[in-house]
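Feature request disguised as a bug report, sorry. It would help if multi-protein outputs had a clear separator. Right now it looks like this:
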Amino acid sequence: MTHTSTRFPEGFLWGASTAAHQIEGNNVNSDWWRKEHDPAAKISEPSLDACDSYHRWEQDMDLLAELGFTDYRFSVEWARIEPVRGTFSRAEIAHYRRMVDGARARGLRPMVTLHHFTVPQWFEDLGGWTADGATELFARYVAECAPIIADGVRHVCTINEPNMIAVMAGAAKAGDQGFPPAGLPTPDEETTRAVIAAHRAAVPLVRAANPDTQVGWTIANQVYQALPGAEEVTAAYRYPREDVFIEAARGDDWIGVQSYTRTKIGPDGPIPAPDDAERTQTRWEYYPAAVGHALRHTAEVAGRDMPLIVTENGIATADDTRRVAYYVGALNEVAAAIEDGLNVHGYLAWSALDNYEWGSFTPTFGLIAVDPVTFERTAKPSAAWLGALGRVRRLPRGTA
C-alpha cells in the first residue's frame, strides 16, 4: 500500500537511537563490563572500545545532521556519573551536557535516556532494582542528572525497556541460560514492581529539572498475535511481559514504542516462525509490519490520546537493501497509524551505528558502519535514504 498523501506532521521527530554502553566503549564501572569479562557468563565477546563514541560523538552527530535527521536519542551512563555510591562525577555530567549542546548546535533535538540496561557495579552488588532503597538510589541519580537535561532537552526517557529488565531478572532466577525459540521467559514480579516504582519516582524529578520537558519510558513490544482460539492465552501471556508496563505509563507525557518482529501465540503458547521464514541476523522473523501492530496495541492499552514515539525500530542485516525494504514497510505502517488518528509524534530508527549488541558485534543494525580498528564512520545507502525523508517528511511515491 502507499501513503503518498500522508505527510508526517510538523515537528515530527525523525532520527536514530543509540545506547551508551553499546557505543561509548570502556564503560569499566558497569555491571555489563564485569559480566563481559566473566567466563561463567559465556559472553561471546566484550564491548571493549565499542564504537569509541565517548570520544567521537561529534562525528556521529555531524553525520546524522548532514544526512537530514532532526533528532538523536542517546543515553547517559549511570556507572560513569556515579562510579562509586554517593560519588558523582562533575566531569561526566559536563561531558553529557556538552553532548546535549552539541546536538542542538547541529540542529539535532536531543532525546536523553537516563537508564539503558546498564547499572553501576556497586548498585548490582547491593541487589539491583529489588534491593532495599533501590528506588531512592535511582531517584538520587536522576536528580543529579538535572544539569544535563535542564535546558534544551524536550524528551527524556527514564528507563529503557523495563519489561526486558524484568524478563532478564526472571530468566536469571530460573537459571535460564538462553531464551526459548519463541516468546520470552516469565518476568520477575518483584523486579516489575521495582522498576515501575523507580520510574514513578523519576518522573517528578525530571519535571522539576525542566517543567517543559516531556517525560516517559520505552516498552519492548513483542507484537503478540493470537491464532484462532488462543485469544485468552495471548492476553495472559502478554500482560506481565508488556501491558502492565504500558499501564504504568498512564499519566506520562509519552510512551516509547519499540518493535522489531512478531510472536504468534497458539493454545499452548508461543509458536516459532516457520523454517522457511526470512530471518534477520538475530534470527528474528523479518516482519516490517510489526511497528504498526505495536503502535495500535499501545494506543489500545494507554488510550488513543497518549502521544506515541517510535523510539526503536530496525533490522540486523548485512544486506542494506533489505534494511531499506524493512524501513519502507515500517514507515507505511506508521503513516497508516497516523491516518487512522493515532497520536504518533516521531520515528527513531535503531540504530544510528553498527554497535555492540549485548554480547556480540556481529548483528549490524546500524545506518552507519563503523570500522572496528580505525573507527571510521561510513554512512550506508539506507542512512542517506532515511535521512532524506526527514527533510521532506513524506514517503516517496511508489513505496509499498
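(second protein starts here, but nothing in the output says so)
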Amino acid sequence: MATPLRLTRRRAVPGLAVAALTATAVLSGCASKADSEGAAALQLWTRSTPASAKVYTKVIAEFTKKTGVKVDYVPVYENFEQKIQQAAAAKKLPDVVINDSSLLGPATTQGLVGTIDKASIAGSDQIVDRAWGQATGADGKLHAIPFSTQAMALFIRKDWREKLGKDVPKTWDDLVSLAKAFQAEDPDGNGQADTYGMLVPGSSQRGYTAWWASSFLWEGGGDFLTQAGPGKFTPAIDSPRSVDAVTKLQGLFCKDKVVVPGALTLITDDAHPFFEKGQAGIYLTGPYMMGRFDKSLGKDRYEVVPAPAGPGGATVLGEGENIYLMAGSAQQDGQKKLAEFLISADGQRLGMNGTQPNPVVRIPVNKNVDMLAERKDDRWALIAKVYQESARTFPQVPNWQPFRQKTSETLNSLFATCDADVRGALGKLAADYRTELATQKVAG
C-alpha cells in the first residue's frame, strides 16, 4: 500500500489576501460532513459552472461506487478564491479542491496545502512528465497533483474568412489584416457595420487582461520575469521586446481599432456571446469553449487554429487544473483515494465527457488515455500538439497573483489611453515587480 501523504506546514507570507491567516489556523480543521448514516463524507470543492458540475457529479458517483467513499460535492464558480479564504479563516476548509494551477502559489504560501510525496500516490507514474510543472511550487517541491491541462488557440469564424477569400493567419500582420477585414467588409452579409475583428476579455478583474495578453507578450519576445538563478527572478516586463509587444497590443485598441467595444470591462463569461452571436470573428481562448460554440454557433462555422508566431516564436499560455489535498483534513486516506481515482485512466475518461460538451478534463494527464479515441475530434489533437510544442505557464514565483493583478491594471490602462507612454508605464510596473519579488523573498 502507498505510504501516507506527507503534509508540511508553511509560514504565511506577508501581503497575501488574508494576511492574518497562518498555517496553524488552517491546519486545525477541514469541513468534512457526516452522511445520513453517520460516516464522514469527503468534502470536494471545484471551480465549476453548473454544466461542468454535472460532469464532476458523474465522476464522483463512479468514485463512490468503486471505493465506497462518500463525497459531499460543492461546486463554486463566483468568487471562488474569496470563498476559499473565508473557509480557511473559519477553519472549515474542504478536504479536496480542484481548481486552476494559479491557486498553487497562494495555497502553498498560506499553508493551505502541504508537500506531496509523489511515490505515495498510486498512478502518479502514469502522469505525463510535463503536467507536473503546473503542480510544482517556487521551492521546487510538489504541492498538488495535475488533473487536466490545456493550451490557448485562435477561434476564427471560418465562414466569414472564406466568404472574404482570406487565408488562415500565419503572422501577426496576417492576424491584424484579417481582423480589419472582419470589421470593414461585412463578412455576415447583412449590410450593417455590426461586426468586429477581435474579441478580448480585457477586464482587470481577476487579472483577465494579463491572462489574455500573456501569449502575445511571449510571442513578441517579451516576458514578465527572468529567472536569475534557482528560485530568484528579475523583472523583464520593461525589456525592449516587452515594450514592443505591448505597444503592438495597444495598437489593436488604438491604431487598428479592431477590438470589440467595451473589451476592457469584459470578463470571459461576458465575452463569449460576442463570438457565438456573430459580433466578433477572432477569439484567443481555451479549448473548453468548443462544446459551447459547437452548440450555439455550429461546428462548421468556426475553426480552431494555432496562434500565429510572433518575433519571439510560437508561444501561448498553457494552463491546467490541479487536485489540491487541503491541509488539516482528518481524511488523508480518502483524499489520496480520490486523487488516485481522478488521475486514473477511468477517472480521466469520465472527466473528458466523451464527445459531449463541458469536459472537466481537457487534455488528459494520464499517458494511457487515447484522447482521440474518446473525443473523435481532430481539433483536440491540435490543442494537444500546441500544448506539447508551444505552451508555457506563468512564472513559478511563490504567489503569481499580485503580479498578474498589477500587470492587468497597467495593461488595461495602457489599452484605454491611446497616448499613454508604454515604456514609462512598464518601467513603473517593473518597479512594482521588484517590490513584490523582495516581499516574496525571490528577488535576484
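Even a blank line would do. Unrelated, but nice: DSSP finds 16 helices and 14 strands in the chain.
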